[in-house]
Write a structure and sequence with these properties.
mainly alpha
Length: 264
C-alpha cells in the first residue's frame, strides 16, 4: 500500500492517466482485501460457535482405551444393540484393565519417582500368577474351557490379595471398582463353567510377606503390574470367545430350515 500511495502522489502533484489507473487499481485491491477480511472474520465467528456446540456434547470416555475395540463393540456399548452375556464379560475385563493400569501408574509415580520407567523395576518385581501360553488362551491353541478356567483361577488370586491394595492411599473409587468388577467377572465365569462350590482349583502360594517399606512398595507394584497384564490378556481372550460365538451363531442362521434333514 505505501509504495502504491507514493506512486499516486509522486512528482509535483500532477496525475497522469497512468497514475490514475494505478490509483484505481490500488483502490480496487483495497476493497477486495477488506471483503476478504470480513469473510475471514465471519468464518472465524461461525467456527467458534460450532466448536462451543461440539464441546457441549457429552462423549463416552472409555471407547478407545484398547486398540482391539471394534465398531460393532462401540455400537453395543452405546446401547444400539443388546449386549450378550459374553460381550459383557470382555467389556468388564476391558474396564478392569483400564482401572488397574491407572492404579499401577499412580503408585509407580508416587513410590518410584527416582526410576526412569517401569523397566527398571524388573529386577525387584516379585512373581504373581499370570496367563501362560499353555493355558489355551492363544489363538494357535485356543481352548475355551481351559482358558476360562485359568482366568478364573488367576483372577481369584488377585481378588483374594486385593486387601493389600485397599490399604494404599490410591484413588478409592478405582480400588472399589476393581474389587466389584472382578467379583462380577468371576461369578459370570463360574456360571459358565458350572463349577460346584468348594471344587474350584486354587493357586497354592505362600502369603505375601511385607517386612519393610521397600518390600511393601515392590509388592504393591508387582501386584498392580502383573494384574494389568493378566487383564489385557483376559480381555483379548474373552473378546475372541465372544467373536467366535457370534460367528458360529451367524453361520447357523444362514443355514436353510431343512439343512439338517438334507444332510441326513
Amino acid at each position: 500500500m505505501s509504495s502504491a500511495q507514493s506512486k499516486f502522489s509522486a512528482g509535483d502533484g500532477e496525475q497522469t492517466d497512468g497514475q490514475t489507473d494505478t490509483a484505481l487499481h490500488v483502490l480496487s485491491l483495497s476493497l477486495s482485501l477488506t471483503s476478504s477480511a470480513d469473510a475471514a472474520l465471519f468464518l472465524s465467528v461461525v467456527l467458534a460457535v460450532f466448536i462451543s456446540l461440539v464441546d457441549a456434547v457429552p462423549a463416552y470416555s472409555g471407547l478407545a482405551e484398547l486398540s482391539e475395540t471394534s465398531r460393532d463393540e462401540v455400537q453395543d456399548v452405546e446401547g444400539k444393540s443388546p449386549l450378550s452375556e459374553r460381550q459383557k464379560w470382555y467389556l468388564t475385563a476391558r474396564d478392569l484393565h483400564r482401572d488397574v493400569k491407572t492404579l499401577r501408574d499412580q503408585q509407580f509415580e508416587r513410590d518410584f519417582r527416582e526410576m526412569v520407567n517401569m523397566t527398571a523395576c524388573e529386577g525387584v518385581r516379585i512373581k504373581t500368577p499370570l496367563l501362560r501360553p499353555s493355558d489355551g488362551c492363544l489363538s494357535r491353541n485356543f481352548s475355551t474351557e481351559r482358558c476360562l478356567s485359568r482366568i478364573y483361577i488367576v483372577l481369584s488370586w488377585y481378588r483374594e490379595n486385593w486387601s493389600i491394595i485397599e490399604k494404599e492411599n490410591l484413588t478409592s473409587s478405582l480400588v472399589k471398582d476393581v474389587k466389584h468388577g472382578s467379583k462380577r467377572l468371576l461369578e459370570a465365569i463360574h456360571r459358565q463353567l458350572q463349577i460346584a462350590d468348594g471344587q474350584e482349583d486354587q493357586i497354592s502360594s505362600a502369603p505375601l510377606s511385607v517386612r519393610s517399606t521397600w518390600t511393601h512398595k515392590t509388592t504393591v507394584h508387582s501386584i498392580l503390574f502383573n494384574f494389568s497384564s493378566v487383564m489385557i490378556d483376559s480381555y483379548r481372550a474373552l473378546h475372541y470367545i465372544s467373536k467366535r460365538k457370534a460367528a458360529h451363531r451367524a453361520k447357523d442362521t444362514k443355514r436353510p430350515a431343512n439343512w439338517s434333514s438334507d444332510k441326513n
